[in-house]
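Exercise 7b. Backbone tokens:
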């Protein structure tokens, strides 16, 4: 009888994905798994614990896999590094019971319940039959989520009051988008006539569950958390920052780095603002001038088409010069985001077989007029060469990596760092020579530097430095953070409010953009030093994009060796 060999790390990782999909059909839908389309995950404490047990069992299997001959090869090593780091960070968050107070304006289990419908296949009558079944599963999913929040209240694990209030408002919008219909009913209206009665009934059931959750959040949860702190303190923040950044950060050093970037960018913005509006008192006066007098796109359909053209043009220009793109990766779609979410644009990855392409999403927030300066570098970030090139490339090379690395094994700061690096790359390559567009790019960079400052500053209640132009010597509060962010951003008030609520909802995530960009730049610099004149940027880009995600410390190490 032959001895059964233990699996290698990539095999352990891929087995984890299979088991994860069984527990979390939302993840299955993002991966394009047809059988997931009709199901919802268990969002109760028991469901959370089942995911944690899977993580613990996988880590035990990984220990054995790394001891097997071949388990320390470069490709196995990178997979093992990612899997161990991710599951360890996820378990730390779970064991601190963060899932019992997951309330806010984005990224909560309730948001995933709604948002998964936007990417659920909806082409055939069979697809819509599965959607009807998934709609009927919404009440059970939201009931499990409420069970988790109820246990959190019992254990005095409170969400922040401001994100809670915003979440109640969002649920209200989901329950009634106008004319007495909820978001689910609007969504189901696109289904086939043959299933009209079934879809309408299922959508009403889903909307009723949203109303029930909204009423409980408003009448029970919100009063219970009133007076709780909006910020999390150093211990919780460090744990959450580790989860989003994949590294144990020196938070005080990161805070100082945010300020150094603030001062550098402010100097560059002043120079560019002088070209846009000579004599402007501040760069944001020049940006306000562009809001009224700069180039704009009129109309929602028109801006969707314009953004599609921007990404198509970037692909045509960059492919073969700075990247080598497979045909599947060359396809990306511009979409308008469904109402009732956060104000920031976002990206969704392609399915594993590319039957659903990568997509960028623009929340219009009721607008029909869109300044160009605010969109160009943002779509370099969300689309090409940003999120789309990285995440679609991971899917394309999944057989060389592992399914885990190509899909669910994401470190937020790695992905957001690449996207911010992509914006800077387009500036380096001369795509942002227009003064309006370059000032918009610098404003977007400044927003990311401000995120580092206010996210760390307000959660740790740090002192504002003496050389700050804003309240030097005082300690950060959410109110000061919102004032600072608004004063150093071109974004409208509703966006600023949404952003600050976001930082209170998911502490430690927003800092990953600038810290991740720094890691990508450091890795590139070290690789260039290593190769000297033989360094080839296109080859480095493709090697870097084909290695999967890593935490920031591991990322710098691996990028330096390419």
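Sequence design result:
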């Amino acid at each position: 009888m032959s001895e059964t060999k233990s699996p290698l790390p990539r095999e352990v990782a891929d087995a984890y994905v299979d088991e994860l999909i069984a527990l979390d059909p939302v993840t299955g839908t993002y991966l394009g798994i047809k059988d997931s389309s009709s199901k919802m995950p268990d969002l109760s404490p028991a469901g959370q614990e089942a995911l944690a047990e899977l993580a613990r069992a996988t880590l035990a299997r990984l220990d054995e896999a790394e001891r097997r001959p071949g388990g320390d090869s470069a490709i196995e090593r990178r997979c093992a590094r990612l899997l161990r780091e991710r599951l360890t960070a996820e378990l730390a968050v779970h064991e601190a019971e963060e899932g019992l107070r997951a309330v806010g304006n984005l990224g909560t289990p309730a948001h995933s319940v709604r948002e998964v419908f936007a990417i659920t296949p909806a082409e055939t009558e069979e697809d819509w039959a599965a959607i009807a079944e998934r709609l009927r599963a919404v009440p059970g999913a939201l009931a499990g989520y409420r069970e988790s929040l109820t246990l959190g209240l019992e254990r005095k694990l409170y969400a922040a009051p401001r994100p809670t209030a915003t979440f109640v408002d969002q649920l209200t919008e989901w329950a009634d988008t106008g004319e007495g219909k909820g978001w689910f009913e609007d969504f189901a209206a696109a289904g086939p006539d043959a299933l009209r009665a079934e879809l309408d009934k299922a959508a009403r059931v889903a909307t009723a569950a949203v109303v029930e959750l909204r009423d409980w959040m408003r009448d029970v949860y919100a009063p219970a958390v009133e007076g709780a702190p909006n910020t999390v303190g150093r211990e919780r923040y460090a744990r959450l920052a580790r989860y989003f950044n994949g590294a144990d950060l020196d938070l005080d050093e990161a805070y100082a780095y945010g300020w150094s970037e603030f001062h550098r960018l402010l100097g560059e913005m002043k120079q560019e603002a002088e070209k846009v509006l000579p004599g402007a008192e501040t760069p944001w006066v020049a940006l306000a001038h562009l809001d009224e007098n700069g180039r704009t796109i009129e109309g929602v359909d028109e801006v969707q088409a314009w953004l599609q053209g921007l990404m198509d043009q970037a692909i045509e220009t960059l492919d073969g010069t700075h990247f080598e793109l497979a045909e599947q990766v060359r396809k990306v779609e511009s979409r308008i985001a469904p109402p009732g979410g956060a104000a920031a644009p976002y990206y969704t990855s392609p399915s594993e077989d590319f039957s659903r392409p990568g997509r960028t999403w623009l929340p219009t927030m009721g607008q029909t007029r869109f300044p160009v300066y605010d969109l160009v570098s943002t779509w370099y970030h969300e689309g090409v060469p940003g999120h789309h090139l990285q995440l679609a490339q991971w899917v394309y090379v999944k057989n060389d990596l592992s399914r885990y690395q190509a899909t669910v094994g994401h470190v937020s700061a790695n992905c957001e760092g690449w996207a911010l690096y992509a914006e800077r790359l387009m500036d380096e390559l001369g795509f942002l020579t227009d003064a309006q567009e370059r000032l918009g790019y610098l404003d977007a960079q400044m927003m990311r530097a401000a995120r580092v400052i206010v996210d760390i500053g307000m959660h740790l209640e740090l002192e504002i430095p003496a050389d700050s132009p804003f309240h030097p010597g005082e300690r950060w509060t959410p109110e000061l953070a919102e004032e600072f962010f608004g004063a150093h951003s071109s974004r409208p008030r509703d966006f600023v409010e949404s952003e600050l609520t976001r930082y209170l909802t998911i502490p430690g995530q927003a800092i990953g953009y600038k810290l991740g960009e720094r890691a990508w730049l450091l890795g590139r610099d070290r690789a260039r030093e290593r190769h000297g004149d033989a360094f080839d940027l296109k080859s480095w880009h493709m090697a870097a994009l084909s290695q999967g995600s890593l935490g920031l410390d591991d990322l710098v190490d691996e990028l330096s060796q390419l």
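Instructor comment: The two ends are 43 Å apart (CA to CA). The mean pLDDT is 95.
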